[in-house]
From TrEMBL:
Family indicated by similarity: Belongs to the peptidase S1C family.
Compartments it resides in: Periplasm
Catalysed conversion reaction: Acts on substrates that are at least partially unfolded. The cleavage site P1 residue is normally between a pair of hydrophobic residues, such as Val-|-Val
Originating species: Sphingobium vermicomposti
Protein name (record): Probable periplasmic serine endoprotease DegP-like
Amino acid sequence: MRYAYAITGALLLGGTAVAVTSSPNVGAQTAQNEGMQAAAPAGAPASLADMVEKLQPAVVNISTKQRVQVQNPFAGTPFGELFGAPGGQPQTRQAQSLGSGFLISADGYIVTNNHVVSAGAESASVDSITVTLTNREEYSARLVGRDPATDIAVLKIDAKKPMPFVKFGDSTKARVGDWVIAIGNPFALSGTVTAGIISAVHRGTGGTYDKFIQTDASINQGNSGGPMFDMRGNVIGINSQILSPSGGNVGIGFAIPAEQAAPIVATLRKGQSVKRGYLGIQISPLGEDMADSLGLAKNRGEFVQGVEPGKGADRAGIKPGDVIVSVSGQEVTPDQNLSSIVANQPIGTRVPIVLIRNGQRQTVTAIVGERPSEDELNSFAQQQGDDFSQQQPPSSGPQASQQSLGISAIPLTPSITRQLGIAAETRGIVITAVDSSTDAGAKGLRRGDVVITANNRPVASQADLDAQVKQVAAQGRTAILLQVLRRGQPAVFLPVRLRDK
């Protein structure tokens, strides 16, 4: 979904001829549009021209020149040197990128998207950044700072004179249905103005910090980094992404809200890096299956899959299997996820965290740490992550089809423990077969997986598992939470739907 980089358009022209006859008995005719003027919707101006005239000079075109290393397709063949660099080595090519931005100070500070001024690939590097004003004046720009996590960057030009600029507004007051204007340079068409309404606020698209303003104002390639204005001319968003199956605008665009962007821009403008709060936990959404397995409402809170030793969550006593429902008084929801709430907490502060453990609500206090680098985070995620849904198809057996979940299992013995290569102290049951037609099969459970707990209760036999399934069903739930261990991976929690009767 992220960014549309190409579009093909076709313009079809056609016409129809209309024969008009008049009768001498018919009086003088007037054009249908004679003297007509549309009334403005309530709260909207009859024309946006005066406002646009003042705002446009603060919106700029941003272009970069990049060097990209391209692999020689003939490398290693007799044609390697004929069609490429000597020895068939990679070739260096020049590339360009285009985007938008806007001035936020008279001395030449500019806000844009990070992806507008970043190299498009690991093998590419940015040689220069050029800023072009609406009066066609060009300036070389330097990168002051960037924050890839939120796709924000700040540039600086050496202004020859005071520059026109705009300021951030209050996006927290933005409401669905409010009118907005986007100004940018789609497809290098500088100074393009589009208008629409706010379609949604706090819209997530899968990223950790996504809290976008969604709009139907036309946004295309080249609009990235440009401003979204409210009807008072204040910047309430930075146009950033589009959802486009076709590659062109389909009326679904996203802007980074000013409430999120303004503090990051202020930090980058000072030459500082953005620091975020961190608790050290791996979480998963409380979707329908997970919520049902816990007997909780879906999309209210997030499930703790893993806790990083020594970090704030671990010291506060948070454990895998907990459901965190609020942090510092802010409820955890899909629109306001746990990561974004924690990231905005000042580092070193003590925050109350409300969680649900074994159906009981309790409060702990954690000290917020500093979020590590993305490389460190990826390392932790790989250690904690599971790939149950991406493994080979589960094995099937007649005994599995007769069991409550479609899982056939036997007690874990010291001999089996050694064969599986798991810790000697592990207790549970080992799966011998899975009915592939069940949810257990669809979730990727397979022969050799070890079920440690079911419904947060230890299991030591198939009978224990079946008893917990019956208890969950008696409570009106349609899924059960299993804690599963796979060789070479830490234990993870997996909701499995009960078989249909």
